[in-house]
Amino acid sequence: MDQAFWHERWRQNQIGFHAEAFNEHLQRHWPALQVVQGETVFVPLCGKSRDILWLMAQGYSVKGVELSSVAVKAFFAENGLSAHECRKENFTVHQLDGLRLFCGDFFQLGFNDVGDVAAVWDRASLVALPPVMRAAYAARMRQLLKPGTRILLVAFDYPQWEMQGPPFSVPTAEVGELYGGWCEVELLATKDVLDDEPHFRQRGLSRMQEQVYKLTVD
C-alpha cells in the first residue's frame, strides 16, 4: 500500500473512514490522559478530521500530518478556516492560531517537528496501515515522542481473513508487540460495533470490536 493508494482514495472521495461527528471514544476517554489545557496534541494521518476542532475547543494546540493536499484543503474549506501556508523541508505547513497541519509524508517528520507534544490522538492512522507499515509507523512514533507523552489509540479487532483492509485488524497482542517495549499499555474499553457498522457486515465480517488504549511513553 503506497502513497498513490491514498492519493487516489482522496481524489475519488472514497473516504468512508471520515466521520462528520466528533469521535465518541475521544470525548469519553480523553480525560484519562490528563492533558493540561494549552499543551499540544499530535494527530497523525489526520485527513480532514473534525476531531481537530474538538481538541482545539478544549483549549489545546494541535499538530497534524496528512499526506493528501486534497484532505488538508478540504479541512480548511469545509470548516470556514483560513491558514497561512509555507514550505518547510519536505512539507507544506498550514498554520493558524493553535493549529499546524503538515501536508506530506508522515515518515519524513522529525523530532523537532513533533517533539513538544504532550499527547497523541490516533483513531484512524495505525489501523489504516498493513502489517509491515504498522511496525515502521510505531518505530517512527517512538523516535518522535518524548517520555511521558500519552497516546489515545483506537484499534479494530476482527477476523482479518474475512475482510481486506483498510481498516485493518490490530488485536491486543499486536498492540503489545508494537508498543509494549517502549510504552505502558492500558486497555480502557472494548466495544462490539458490527451492529452499528452494517457496511462491515456487508463486506463479510462476522465479528468486529473497537478497542481503546491509553499508551504512556516510557
UniProtKB/TrEMBL annotation:
Protein location: Cytoplasm
Reaction catalysis annotation: S-adenosyl-L-methionine + a thiopurine = S-adenosyl-L-homocysteine + a thiopurine S-methylether
Keywords, in A-Z order: Cytoplasm, Methyltransferase, S-adenosyl-L-methionine, Transferase
Binding residue positions for S-adenosyl-L-methionine: W10, L45, E66, R123
SUPFAM superfamilies assigned: S-adenosyl-L-methionine-dependent methyltransferases (SSF53335)
Pfam families per the UniProt record, alphabetical: TPMT
Biological process terms in GO annotation: methylation
Gene3D superfamilies: Vaccinia Virus protein VP39
InterPro entries according to UniProt: SAM-dependent_MTases_sf, Thiopur_S-MeTfrase_Se/Te_detox, Thiopurine_S-MeTrfase, TPMT
GO terms assigned for molecular function: thiopurine S-methyltransferase activity
Primary site of residence: cytoplasm
UniProt enzyme class: transferase
Top-level lineage group: Bacteria
EC number: 2.1.1.67
Presence of keyword Nucleotidyltransferase: no
UniProt family annotation: Belongs to the class I-like SAM-binding methyltransferase superfamily. TPMT family.
Protein name: Thiopurine S-methyltransferase
Originating species: Methylomonas subterranea
Lineage: Bacteria, Pseudomonadati, Pseudomonadota, Gammaproteobacteria, Methylococcales
